[in-house]
Structure formats: structure tokens, C-alpha cells
Amino acid sequence: MTSELIATMTALWLGILTSISPCPLATNVAAVSLLARKAHNKRRACAGAIAYTLGRVVVYIGLATLLMTGLTSMPTLSNFLRNEIVPLIGPILILAGMAVVGLLPIPANFKFGNAQFADTLTGYGMLGEFCLGGLFALSFCPVSAALFFGSLMPIAMASNFPPLLVASYGLGTALPVGVIALLLALSATKASKVLQRIQRLQKIAVNLTGSILIGVGIWLTLSDTLHIF
User: Fold this and answer.
1) Distance of CA 139 to CAs 26, 72, 74, 86, 202, Å?
2) pLDDT class for 114, splitting at 50, 70, 90?
3) Which of 17, 85, 123, 163 is the most core-located residue (most Cβ within 10 A)?
């Protein structure tokens, strides 16, 4: 039970870190600002931001579920993952941690949509704002891709409750956005100050998390892969 709780909290933190990573944070702030300008009042702006956030959460959960379902639907691969995933987690986390701190280059950003398309989507009300959140969730940059595919997915596949971890990750991606959206609806000045603090802490959080991933990966490699202790 303790290990599952740690895994769940880890997934939550990975989601938060994904949300405050440079390109997702910039996308989120731009989207929330756009929603605020489109809305006629603060309540509507807040509702639009919530719809946008839910769109991101649903897509993250759906993508992770689709990947795990697809992998486990193949009998040979499913058996391999069930029996062999634990020894592989350590090396995977090392590579993911190296990608997070910038030691391992990975492919360029995957982006969907543009500013004009985003502006068009917001014209369809809350449904459009929900779709906008889902669309931007699919725009992976190196750090967010490393966190999602390289860190969350191996941990989720090794867990007894994968949906719980994926939901925790999705919730984590929503928390910073929700806070910024709420503050923006109440006071643009407060939102700006919080955003500046997040941006100052972002680099520290990314480097710290990347280092932890590498450290945990080395430990798991020595214990579960090489069986040194």
C-alpha cells in the first residue's frame, strides 16, 4: 500500500512538473489569457479555464490508457511487460532523467494547432475551450515527453492500479493551470506575481526532479536489473 501511495504521489508530481515545464507553461498561460479576453465576465473566464484544464486532463488520461491497453492487448508483449518491466524501469528512468535535465537530446517538439486556430476554437464556447485543452495536451516538448513517456508510463505499467496513477498525473497537470486561471479571474496582478514565482522555481524543480529520476534509476538498475544488492 505504501509503495502504491508513493507511486501515486510521484505521478502527481510528474504531472505538476509537466504543467510548469517551459513550453507547456507558456502554452497554458497563453491559452488561459486568451480565454480571459474572450469571456464577458470573470465567472465565464474561470469556467472556460476549467473546461480547458479538463480537456488536458481527459486527453492525458485517454492517451496513457490507450497506450497501456494497446500494449497489454498483445499477449506476447503483455507477458513480457508483466514479467520483465521491473528490471527495465531503472535504465528507463535514467534515460528519462537525463532527457529532463538536458543531458540526452530527444526529437523536436510535437505541436498541434496555432494561435489562429486556438482563437477559432474559443469561439465555440466551453466545448471549444475543452477541445483546445485536449489539443494542446498533445503538444509535447522534450521535457514533457520525457516525463510522460519515459517516467509516468513505466511506473504506471508496473503498478497494480495504473488508472489511479494516470489520473493523478492528469490532476497534477491541471493544478498549476487552475491556480493561474483562478488568480487571473480574481486579479491579473496576483496571477502575474504567482507566474513569476513559478518561472523562478521551474528550473530548480526540473533539475531536481531529473536528478532524482537518475538517482532512483541507478538504484533500481543496481538492485532490480543487475541484482548487485
Assistant:
1) 12, 25, 27, 29, 19
2) low
3) 17
